[in-house]
Automatic annotation (TrEMBL):
Residues 303-331 are annotated as: Disordered. GO terms for molecular function: branched-chain amino acid transmembrane transporter activity. PANTHER family: ABC TRANSPORTER ATP-BINDING PROTEIN (PTHR30482:SF17), HIGH-AFFINITY BRANCHED-CHAIN AMINO ACID TRANSPORT SYSTEM PERMEASE (PTHR30482). Residues 312-325 have a biased composition (Low complexity). It is found in: Cell membrane. The keyword Lipid metabolism does not apply. InterPro entries: ABC_transp_permease, LivM-like. GO terms for cellular component: plasma membrane. The keyword Transmembrane applies. It comes from the Bacteria. The chain crosses the membrane at residues 32-53, 82-102, 109-128, 160-178, 243-270, 282-300. This is Amino acid/amide ABC transporter membrane protein 2, HAAT family.
Amino acid sequence: MRALRMAVGAGVLVGLVAAPWAVDDYTVSLLARTLALGLVAVGVALLTGVAGLPTLGQTAPYAAGAYAGALAGGQLSDVGPVQLLVAAAAGAALAAVTLPLVLPARGVVLLMITLAIGELAVVLAGRWTAVTGGTDGLAGIAATRPLWGLPVLATDRSRYLYTLVVVAVLTGLVLLVLRTRAGLLLRAGRDDEARLRASGHRVPAQVAGVHVGAGAIAGAAGSLLVTAQQYVSPADFGFDTSALLLLGVVVGGTASVGGALIGAVLVVAARDWLFGALPGQAPLVLGLAFVVAAHLLPTARSARPATRRGRASAPAAHPARRPAAMTGVRP
């Protein structure tokens, strides 16, 4: 299974790099939006697979980042890094505001809370007409400039390449962080939170940090969405988007950040193909795919550790307390 995932991942990465010169402009634009959604899936994998915090609410900071990036592009600066910083700050701020709801919850309760947060964000975006444009959305957003002094991204190919570079850089940064002590502590909290607390580590601070960090990632992805399609509306952040994200993470591997990105790209591409091949039946097919993936893929079955169900694993026996026959030392 791991070799198959690596082969599929390598093929997808090669295809993403070659895509601007191999497909038409509409498909390139669609791929750019798919990459933005794949970056949100990176945050979902960070929370669900690495930290053990299942979520269906990453569309909330995704929406906050998209609207913040769109407003920053029209009133503050048309430079991409500035818009990314503003959008990431908006996503992190929304995640920080919801921390009192997230910190004490775990498991299915946390999943339902995050789902409610995502749906409330969509409702707010649809009704806050003065800022978000309501259900009509924000249109006519100015083109983004990749860096100071460079021309604006005026073609679908240039916007796609900009999105691909930003997604690659941010995903690489997440992978680097996961190799540090902070990443080890997140995995330890996922596997045995009670033991981590008993060791003197501040688990609530870790949960708060990863939640806000994932919110910042989703916010940056929202800015990329605006750059790719130059339009944003509440329809971009509904429940179907949350379900697609979770399905992509399950297919790519709940504990694999890179796999989550590739899984989301594959799932969204399959959805768009199904809409053309099976009109009206795409949600049914994707729902069946989610059920099959949840039951058959080993990463989906093992995503919820035994300690989350209240059964703490027994500590290993100390070598000094083992019988002499077990240690190989003569009495």
